[in-house]
Amino acid sequence: MTTTATATKQFMTSDQLLEDWQGHRNLTRRVIEAFPEKDLFEFSIGGMRPFAKMATELIGIAGPALKGIIDNNMEAYNEEGFKPGTKEDILKKWDEETEVINHYFNMISEERFQETFNLFGEYEFPVYQNVLYFIDNEIHHRAQGYVYLRALGIEPPFFWERF
């Protein structure tokens, strides 16, 4: 019996993935900035949460989840820890979490991206899929923020200007 090895080519490096993610985070930060303070915390459409709640969720997921991956800790997700009172609180914490993300993301080896991890004790996928979930979740909520801004008569940042 003969076996043939197929060489695989890497689509992107982990550094490129982090750069792409941080571009999304840059854009989401600009969406947060675009909101008037009151509307950031109060405005809602169709029963969706105000954008401050969505931003707080994003803050509570990525950094803690990456730390959990590094520490092999599958603790349940908890968004109760951070309770911002102002837009500035959110932006400050957003920037702090950006550094947390950079720190822990850079500790994940190329091999580890392929390992299965039970994120928050609920979602068992390879680490790279967990990271893609963080990015997808952010894009999803940012799109809701775009709808809110447009409903408020505010032009959101161009979606392609991520850096």
From TrEMBL:
Annotated keywords: Metal-binding
SUPFAM superfamilies documented for this protein: DinB/YfiT-like putative metalloenzymes
One GO molecular-function entry: metal ion binding
InterPro entries tied to this protein: DinB, DinB/YfiT-like
Coiled coil spans: none
Residues annotated to bind a divalent metal cation: H141
Tree of life domain: Bacteria
Homology family: Belongs to the DinB family.
The name this protein goes by in its record: Damage-inducible protein DinB
Organism the protein comes from: Chryseobacterium phosphatilyticum
